[in-house]
Amino acid sequence: MPQQDPFGEAYLRLTLEIDKHIDGYLDAYYGPAALRDEVRAAPLRPPADLLADIDRLADRIPTDDPTRAVYLASTLRAIECTVRMLAGQTFDYLEEAHRLYDIRPQLAPESRLLAAHNALDSLLPELPGGSLAARLAAWRKQYEIKPARALELLELARAETRWRTAALIELTDDEAVEVRLTSGQPWSAYNWYLGGGRSLIEFNTDLPLNALNLLGTFAHEGYPGHHTEAILKEIELYRRRGYAEQAANLLHSPAAVIAEGIATTAQKIIFPNGSHHEWNAEVLLPAAGLPVEPGLADRLRRIDTATEALRYVNGNAAILYHTGLITKAGAIDYMQTYGLATPERAAKSVSFFTHPLYRAYIFTYSVGYDLIAATADPAATFRRLLTEQVLPSELTLT
To answer: For 53-99, what is each residue's pLDDT tens digit?
Structure first.
């Protein structure tokens, strides 16, 4: 265990104090257990005291590593925003996203979303009297699986994504992922990093599980996504360099944009040129006992390309809702109209970005993806982000 310097201990203590106010604020913690237990046992400290702690930390940021100093300054600004909101201060929604995540989200043009609709219209099977959303739902439904089959199919996805990741990046011999099914959550899947190279990945069964999504979701949460980033940064930044802040992963911080950027591009990194569609058609779907028509991989690739623009629908709906332009019911309708979502999936999406923890988090996925994809060499950027402290605004400038 790295020896804690005064700044590092004070930083970890602060984040643990905030987590007592906001359950789930710490996405992961693998710092000293004694410090965690001490903070948990102590009386709850008021936000005013925490703001004073932030001011003291800002004046004591280590300067021996300039990159780390800039990273910490931005992270402390995000922490300050969280504590000010905890104290009752409000921010304009997009300003909140900027302060927390070092990004400036914007509405995606609806013309771009409608262009995706037009592309899908030419690709999806006809359904007499059916809308485009109904046709997409019918197409996806044929690949749904029962929860009882999920774990064995996820094992196939685990094995495939792990060996491909190990061919790209050196993994530790003792790292491991446990997979469980859960329900009653606002998210579809979640990686709980436990420290020491271990993760628990939970898959939510509130909505039907789709075989076509299992590989991508495992890449996102596990290899080479969240689990892989966590173990590599624990080793390089926390254990080797002694950067204490790395042992407290904050849900509301610029690092979340980088983490989701890594996760949303993970599948493309290990399956270049859409080759995951061949794997699904040749391995996963037959294992699931699902139909594989001739030319399916190519059809999947074209549908996948057509739907890529729909990744921005959630962000649009969140902006419109949180700026008062539409109601919650209007947001659900927007998800159905522009995202072609079923009523159930639309309601689940809206429940995510109306949840206090995730109201601005929604942008980390699309913005994180775009920041990596827009670099000159996305694969090189991806590998760099797995082990370095990089801010979203720094990627914007590259």
So the answer is: 999 999 999 999 999 999 999 999 999 999 999 999 999 999 999 99
Q: What tens digit of pLDDT does each residue of 23-64 get?
A: 999 999 999 999 999 999 999 999 999 999 999 999 999 999
Neighbours of 272 (CB within 10 A): 10
| Cα dihedral across residues 347, 350, 354, 359: positive or negative | positive
Mean pLDDT for 161-185 is 95
Nearest Cα to 369, choosing from 323, 298, 308?
308
**Given the structure tokens 């999806």, which residue do they identify?**
124
Residue 121 CA: distances (Å) to CA of 140, 303, 324: 15, 10, 32
Q: Look-up: residue for tokens 């905030």?
A: 18
Q: How confident is the model at residue 4 (pLDDT cuts 50, 70, 90)?
A: low
How far, in Å, CA of 309 to CA of 233, rounded? 31
DSSP single-letter state for residue 64: S
Degrees to nearest 5, angle at CA 360 with 355 and 363: 120
- Overall average pLDDT of the 167-192 stretch: 94
> In angstroms, rounded to a whole number, what is the distance separating the alpha carbons of residues 125 and 134?
11
| Tokens encoding 227 | 């689990």
Q: What pLDDT sits at residue 207? A: 87
Alpha-helix runs per DSSP H in the chain: 6-21, 33-41, 47-59, 66-86, 93-101, 110-121, 132-141, 147-168, 211-221, 226-233, 254-270, 276-279, 285-288, 296-307, 313-322, 328-339, 343-353, 363-373, 378-385, 392-396
pLDDT digits (tens, 9 = 90+) for 269-319: 999 999 999 999 999 999 999 999 999 999 999 999 999 999 999 999 999
Q: What phi and psi, each to the nearest 5 degrees, are found at residue 190?
A: -150, 140
Radius of gyration in angstroms for the set of CA atoms belonging to the chain, rounded to a whole number = 21
Contacts (Cβ under 8 Å, ≥6 apart) of 177: 158, 198, 199, 200, 201, 222, 223, 227
Q: What is the pTM of this model?
A: 0.96
